[in-house]
Amino acid sequence: MWGYAGKFLEVDLSAEKINELTFDESILRQYIGGRGLAAKILWDRLGDHWETIDPLGPENILLVLTGPLTGFFPGGRICVSGKSPQSNGVVGSTVAGEFPIELKCAGYDGLIITGKAAKPSYIFITDSQAEIRDASHIWGKDGKQTLTMLTKEGREKLRKTNPLYGEWKEPAALYIGPAGENKVRIAAVMAKWTHAAGYGGYGAVMGSKNLKALVAKGTGPLPEVENIEKVKALIDEASQRCYMNDSFRRWGTSASGYEVGAIASSEPIRNWQEEWHDQKSFGVDKFERRVWIKRYWGDFGCPTTCLKVAMVKTGPFKGAIDDNPDYELQAYLGTNLGIFTPEENVYLASVIDDLGLCGIQGGNVLGFAGELYQRGILTKEDLDGIELRWGDAKAFATLARKVAMKEGIGDLLAEGSYRAAVKIKEMKKKDIMQYVVHEKGMAIGAHGVRSGKDYTTDIAYACSVQAGDHTSTAYLPIHHGNSELAIILHDSGVYCFFNNFNLPRQLKWDFFKAVTGWEIGPEEWYETTARRILHLQRALLLLGGPDLKWNPKIHDDNPQRFYEPLPSGPYAGKKVERAKFDDLKKEYYEEAGWDENGIPKSEVLKQLGLEEVDRALEKKIR
Amino acid sequence: MSSQEPIWIVRDYLKCSGCRKCEIACSLFHENRIWPEASRIRVFMLVPGAEFPHFCTQCDDYPCVESCPVDALSVSKETGAVLVEKEKCTACGLCIDACPGRIPHIHPTEKYAVICDLCGGEPQCAKVCSEGGWDVLRVVSKADEKNMERDRAYKIYARKPEEVTRDLVASLYGETGKELI
């Protein structure tokens, strides 16, 4: 088998046992890796009692999986998954960084982590070896402190084991901050201070397992490939094309903090009360001039290096360090909170990343609280004295800390916007559900649908198997490159799809062929392989539970706010039209192979060899 | 760049993106695999943002060559690079201790010291770095570089990873940086 290390690590934290396991080539051929393989493993192990599994209980499984293209296709990533404490389905949440490379070089394609450790722990992986180590001294530390300690400790350990090697390069880590430790449902799995697997809430799953971090150092090569000369040529071709994406290389997505608001008019502002702004103070030139301290920053093999390192140089937040907030964090930790300056935005992003909160989910719940404060529903007393005024970065940072520590009102908000809204509604006896902008328990990405000028369509979130995830949205026609079926390929091969822009579509298939030897091709992918993964995710999302279940008739829908007209900007008055939405949804169900109730059709499942899934849906849902 | 005259690679650490394309290019050239730990150039990231490539800087007095008890190390007359004779090398590590930057390391599987050989005169790391526009690594003629400038640069390159990191962090993050090391 080419492209795979060939072995996975299974770690039972309860029994403190570590085993190696393998998958047949036929399984990998069908589910590839990352997101696809996660759906398969979860179905096989938990599918028959999915609705009873508490995502934050020891019975949940945490998956950390690379794919065959990880390390080869420019821009390595890794996929974190399990039963999501947000959607109660399966989210393939990918994060960049050096960890996937170290893991593959250590001889492993991924980790399957079960049970719960008796005390705070981390898993340390070296060449064909792994051990569970004590993390009591790191528990409670923020992101930057955690990584500093793990780097130091890891290098010391490596030096002791092999003192004649020379200087050991640092091992790579995935870790959680205090938010994950406290099982905050909107906690992320973090890497390199600023990188986050945010959607899904797997930081909380790690916390529920008493698992502070995964640390890896491998000294082997990446796996053998089918045709190394071809792989070299493809890396070169992909890189050359990425080098030509001038503006994207220069600014990444951070030009959008201004442009998506001013031009597309689809940026969340003050909890989505508006989606248009023309605040020049939020222009990317201001970020570039005032906070950038490194122009290009990236991860293994990346030709684009669209990240920038940023630091606040003046004012009350001087010294705050983070990457330059990407568009999503410019929006959610900027405009969505009424913040329109680079300094406040970078400061707030650094606070959120250090706490290990997801910037999108965190910014969504902070914005939700902000609107409740604006409307007098949450008062200063409810907020333990915080005056949560729009634009006050300090106030929002204080509230974010309460969320991560589950203090006071933070305990409610730590559940994420939707679950918090249900509780606050109860507490205040007021209908507040129109103010929560979510999809099936997950915050929605910062690309609104009302103006019709963004890539997201009316059904983008409503019909996605990853709910609010803006990187994996429903799209028609379903064979389109924007469709969720196309995204499943990136999330299962596990590489950065930002390096897929401007590439001929054929290049991906050539890459798969040169690495794995498999001729996948668009027909097989869009008709069979991707659909199998999509249906598995859909089935598990609908089985849901135990705290919430989704009925497609009710919940395959936009948040109420998207049916309100945009109040400002060039597209004022535009909103999602119910009749048009219903038509699109119907059409999407048909193209996806789901019945009129949004449930995967029996004959479709059988055709794809998913008889067990069909039986479960027949018994429990249809 | 002619392979007939000694060359040198000048570096601008503050521009390093940490993309590690140099490691990929190096290991593909020397091993025909993507193999970061067999790469002759390794990008250290002891602190995020403060990435830098760590590799041989061809000291004028070549202390590693001097230190080798089995004469496995020699200096290339064409390029000025340190050449390692794999068969002779015993992986004793004395060259690592002799190196002011502790730059060599032992090949992960073959047990000989890994030292940059300047790819025989066309360093692949510098090629990929300039192609991508990062320009952290630039090949110059060793003779052309004014002695003063090379001395200054040498003092920056020929240091241990911790020392390089400390200065980079101070440059990038100023006062705040002290807590990060």
User: Number of DSSP helices of chain B?
Assistant: 6
What kind of assembly state do the chains in view correspond to? heterodimer
Q: What is the alpha-carbon Rg of chain A in Å?
A: 23 Å
The structural class of chain B is alpha+beta
- The number of E-state strands of chain A comes to 17
Q: Judging from the principal axes of the Cα atoms, what is the shape of chain A?
A: globular
The largest pleated sheet of chain A is described as: 6 strands, mixed
> How would you sum up the global shape of chain B?
globular
What is the number of beta strands of chain B?
A: 8
Structure explained in plain terms:
The complex is a heterodimer of chains A (622) and B (181). Chain A is of the alpha+beta class. Chain A is 39% helix and 12% strand. Chain A is built from 23 helices and 17 strands. Chain A has helices spanning 25-31, 34-46, 99-105, 143-161, 178-181, 202-208, 228-243, 246-251, 256-264, 284-290, 327-332, 342-355, 359-374, 393-405, 409-413, 417-428, 484-493, 505-516, 521-543, 552-555, 578-592, 602-607, 611-620, and strands at 8-12, 17-21, 62-65, 77-81, 93-96, 110-114, 121-126, 129-134, 172-175, 189-191, 195-197, 211-216, 292-297, 307-311, 321-323, 438-439, 442-443. Chain A has a six-stranded mixed sheet with strand order 2-1-6-3-4-5. In chain A, helix 2 (34-46) packs across helix 19 (521-543), helix 7 runs antiparallel to helix 18 (505-516) and helix 17 packs across helix 19. The radius of gyration of chain A is 23 Å and the shape is globular. By secondary structure, chain B is of the alpha+beta class. Chain B has six helices and eight strands; from the N terminus they run βαββαββαββαβαα. Helix content of chain B is 29%, strand content 14%. In chain B, helix 1 (21-31) runs antiparallel to helix 4. Chains A and B meet through helix 4, helix 7 and strand 13 of A and helix 1, strand 2, strand 6 and helix 6 of B.
